[in-house]
């Protein structure tokens, strides 16, 4: 049985704004779930409804099989970590960690043991006498996480906990939070707008847009089988290239280059879309640049003009004008074609995606 069930959850704010629409999700005990989407899509609102910080306008929230809509935040057995660390500036790390337990009247020696063990998990043992202002951003965020895990709750809710950290600290804390999750085994819901965080941390990702769930799935599912153009364009770094095209006389016309779609789509699909607009998708990392005259098998050739080359260290992003469609190719770091030169590349049939231009939904292709 699901540990946490969100059934037809809606949020309509007092000003009438409908922020979350029919949110349905079952979360298993111990799962690490990430809500991801652009700013304003309803991630925090949904998290806050689970926490009991916002009331649920419509729908049912079940925690461990029991309806929790009317329960207060404390009764729900959840702990929340916010973007702002919300530490008490005048208290030491020890007191910040101990505060919740002290309020509950827990014995001093029990508190001491729990603070000691949480500090050990988080690598804070040497900092217990320091004040928040004497810590780095990453250390402060660890104290904030520690304040949540010390309460030994069953559900952790984290709202963009890494957004105040610099890029390097974010990468470190990302793996630390994943490890803490592995150690505590607590069901975790984590909100972020960063698809890399979602992809690296989640057991399952919930992609949201404008208050609606777009897709729920493992990182692998979302990367290889996005249900629509929004998910395809959101997941991946850089995201999937999406190029407007058309099915004409059984051929797929990609920027005036006719391609035989029967290599990757069924005949019935091609017939259904005859004369219609579709969107052709391929991932930047799926292409092979034409080098040394060798032609990869089961691929088709496209050409374009190099507009910009970005060397990122482990790879190069090549921005290309492909007959007025802007696409990005991911290549090896040593590949560095000059701007304004022509480039030829191959797209494997097995890496081709099609979307319905009207509905933006995926069109089934052979895999
Ligand atoms: P996210 O976390 O995905 O950035 P939020 O859940 O914070 O998005 O907000 C979702 C939408 O609800 C936004 O358009 C936001 O402006 C709106 N919103 C948030 N809080 C309120 C409120 N108290 N009253 C009215 N609208 C709100």
Describe the protein in words.
With about 375 residues, the protein is α+β, with helices and mostly antiparallel strands. The chain folds into two domains: about 5-235, Rossmann fold, CATH 3.40.50; about 240-355, Beta Barrel (OB fold (Dihydrolipoamide Acetyltransferase, E2P)). It is about 25% helix and about 35% strand. The chain has helices at about 45-50, 95-105, 110-120, 135-150, 165-185, 195-200, 220-225, 230-235, 265-270, and strands at about 5-10, 20-25, 30-35, 60-65, 65, 80, 155-160, 185-190, 205-210, 210-215, 240-250, 250-255, 255-260, 275-280, 290, 300-310, 315-320, 325-330, 340-350, 355, 360-365. Strands 6-7-8-3-9-10 form a six-stranded mixed beta sheet, with helices on both faces. The protein has a six-stranded antiparallel beta sheet with strand order 13-12-11-14-20-21. A five-stranded antiparallel beta sheet has the order 15-19-16-17-18, with no helix packed on it. The longest helix is centred in the middle third of the chain and has 18 residues, at about 165-185. The protein binds adenosine-5'-diphosphate (ADP).
The CATH architecture of the largest domain can be named as 3-Layer(aba) Sandwich
Ligands, ions, cofactors: adenosine-5'-diphosphate
Give helix % range: 10-25%
Beta strands, count: 21
The CATH homologous superfamily of the largest domain: P-loop containing nucleotide triphosphate hydrolases
Strand order of the largest sheet: 6-7-8-3-9-10
Q: What class do helices, strands and sheet pairing give? A: alpha+beta
Let me know the largest β-sheet: 6 strands, mixed
Choose one word for the global shape: globular
What is the number of helical segments per DSSP (H or I, 4+ residues)? 9
- The Rg value, from CA coordinates, equals 25 Å
Beta percentage is 25-35%
The overall pLDDT, averaged over residues, is 93
| The CATH class of the largest domain | Alpha Beta
CATH-defined topology of the largest domain: Rossmann fold
Low-confidence stretches: none
Question: How many separate structural domains?
Answer: 2
Note the gap between the termini.
Answer: 32 Å
């Amino acid at each position: 049985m699901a540990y946490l069930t969100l059934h037809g959850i809606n949020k309509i704010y007092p000003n009438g704004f409908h922020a979350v629409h029919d949110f349905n999700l079952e979360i298993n005990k111990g799962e690490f779930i990430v809500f991801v989407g652009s700013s304003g899509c309803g991630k925090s609102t949904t998290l806050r409804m689970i926490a009991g910080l916002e009331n649920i306008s419509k729908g049912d929230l079940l925690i461990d099989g029991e309806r929790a809509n009317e329960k207060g935040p404390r009764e729900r057995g959840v702990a929340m970590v916010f973007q702002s660390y919300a530490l008490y500036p005048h208290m030491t790390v020890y007191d910040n960690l101990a505060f919740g337990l002290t309020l509950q009247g827990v014995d001093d020696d029990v508190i001491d043991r729990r603070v000691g063990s949480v500090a050990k998990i988080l690598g804070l043992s040497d900092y217990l006498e320091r004040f928040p202002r004497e810590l780095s951003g990453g250390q402060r965020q660890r104290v904030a996480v520690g304040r949540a895990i010390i309460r030994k709750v069953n559900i952790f809710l984290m709202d963009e906990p890494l957004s105040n950290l610099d890029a390097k600290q974010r990468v470190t804390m990302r793996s630390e939070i994943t490890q803490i999750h592995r150690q505590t085994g607590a069901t975790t819901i984590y909100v972020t707008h960063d698809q890399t965080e979602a992809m690296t941390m989640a057991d399952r990702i919930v992609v949201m847009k404008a208050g609606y769930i777009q897709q729920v799935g493992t990182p692998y599912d979302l990367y290889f089988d996005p249900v629509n153009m929004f998910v395809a364009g959101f997941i991946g770094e850089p995201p999937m290239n999406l190029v407007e095209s058309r099915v004409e006389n059984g051929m797929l016309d990609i920027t005036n280059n006719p391609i035989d779609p029967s290599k990757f789509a069924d005949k019935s699909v091609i017939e259904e879309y005859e004369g219609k607009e579709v969107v052709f998708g391929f991932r930047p990392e799926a292409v092979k640049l034409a080098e040394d005259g060798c032609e990869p098998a089961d691929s088709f050739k496209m050409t374009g003009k190099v507009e910009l080359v970005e060397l990122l260290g482990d790879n190069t992003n090549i921005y290309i004008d492909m007959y007025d469609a802007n696409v990005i190719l991911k290549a090896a770091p040593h590949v560095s074609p000059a701007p304004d030169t022509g480039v030829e590349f191959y797209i494997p049939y097995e890496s081709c995606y099609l979307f319905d231009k009207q509905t933006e939904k995926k069109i089934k292709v052979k895999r």
